[in-house]
Amino acid sequence: MWVQEQGSDPSRAAAFLDWADSDDFWPMFRDVFKTFGPLSPDTGTMAYMKWKQWELFIDGLDAAKDAGALDGIVVPLAGEWRPDGSSYFTRIQEKRDWVLAMQKSQWQGLFGSPPKWSAGNLVGFMRCPAGFVLIQYVVFLVHKLRSELSVEAAQTNLESMLYAFVNIFDAHFDHLESSNWNYSSFDLAVNLNIEDERYFPRYADFVAAQDNPPVYQPRWQDQWPEHVSCIQLGAPKDLEKLRIALVGEHGPSNLEHLEALSAALEESTLQVEAAHFFTYLWQLADLSDGSSLRSSLRITWEAFWGQPLTESAGRDKKSQPLWTIEQAVWALREYARREPFLRRAEAIVCSEPLWLCVLLHHILSKSIFTRASAAGRVMCLLVDFEQVFGIDEVENFWEILRQVSPTFHGRPVITATSRITAEMLDWQAGIRVPYVPFLSLHVKARYAPVHDELLFLFFRSLLPAGATFHRVLRLIEAERQAAGKTPRPRIVAMTKAMSYDEMAAFRAVVMLPHIPNALRLSDCYAMGLPLFIPGEPLIHKFIWPDDPLPLLSKARMPEAAADLRFPRSPLEFQSEGRRFYKFREERHYWLQYTEWWLRPHLLHFSSARDLLDKLAGFAQGHAVSTAMLNHQAKMRSDVLDYWRCGLSAALADWAG
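Structure tokens predicted for Rrp5 protein:
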């Protein structure tokens, strides 16, 4: 059942996205723009007519103010309602108030309920948010390409355009992509600059103009040929039990490594005993594996470090760093000396945060596998470093890293769980490591969709991106239903934890990336569960973390060599995820190294409308699932060979 929100009609999403039922200027302008594009004479003429109306309207407000006529005008704010459903209003006392009314409006809150503004309010611009932006875009584009404005005038023109663009086209809200204007916000974004004189009709044209080096994708065997021989070393004959210490704050990652390691020993008589260190239990609150981790947890993060690592785990955002690198090294050394399991463990697997792995390598002579994950996030070695140590400790950390040479049996043992992490380690510190992906071998369920039912799962996302996109999807779904379109896919929102068997019963899963790599991707892939994800460019609205970069000035080791394989920096663009008109080249370049782009057989959609069309006609689920499982089997063989070789080398070190 659809819930009416503030008088809106979910079956008429186009009323907001397209202004489809209006009888004034906007439907005509939409048809011309949609048919002929932004630079046609007809589009330009209509845009300049409307822009001239706006200028005359604004200029006329001065006379109205002198006559005292403005004081009696009030307008409702779009998307702003009181608890009783009535609109918030703002009083117009000078011409600037009209612009403020636009700025104060919450366009994301409309979703099918157009603002109740007269055609004269800002010459109707406020009644059609998409049209408001596209009129400015046409004017800006003509000035950029065909007029000779001064740099100052061009910059003013651009800033005006960008303000409208950002204010209305929220980075996570699927505006133009799901509208019928035949343009995406990224088609606009690639031209929103004055430095580049080129014009790209579409985002695809921008992509075609990029000249990036090919993606470097070696297998771990190619990068570590000497490791392959280690599998022949075998385990010491007197060893009956293999004690593995799993170090990392992210519980699911620890269990992923334990499962892969155990699978590599399937033909061995060795028993595996595991213990976890510095791990958050809340990460596994809804998972059956949580109880096994809880029983083998030797120390929590908070118990050792004094406070949670991140705000999401309960850290007070106002708290100050408690540690120096020197203090942490001393405390870790003393803890490891007194902790019986760490003293006896034959191997240690460390993953997150990466700086902790570096400190452990520094203080222990044990065999330590470092599985560099950090989900491919931008700071890589320094993820979550600042709140523990502060920016002044970065140089001391780099000094520790210079002293570390982690090897087993004379061979390096650092691997990355995602390709983008491998590249960032090289860029940040000159450390070249192989890529050995997550497998989710603990997932035993397999694709078994409910017959004769177009039932799809929308995977839960706790970020604003997920909620806003899902609302647009619901509105367009209702619009399709009202129009009598069939077949009609049914989308179930995942609002709580589900078992893998429950998930495997859906025809496919819709998933919005929130970081460059995620265990949920490998979980569904292991099931052979068909996955619909945003294609490029829509994926750029979701995949990048939009993290602050407090350590930006020190994020790279001073001696890290410039490398021609990195034509684009991985840093700044991830700190401004919502400004997707910036760093256009960087986003496109680094997308190719993300797990969402590297894994084959994922299904792509370009908008909420496109997604619903593809779900309605989706009948190839079993073929897609088979292809995914075949690729999973190939990855499994390679990854388990890595663990066998690594364990053999580690046990040889232990025996020596």
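The two ends are 68 Å apart (CA to CA).
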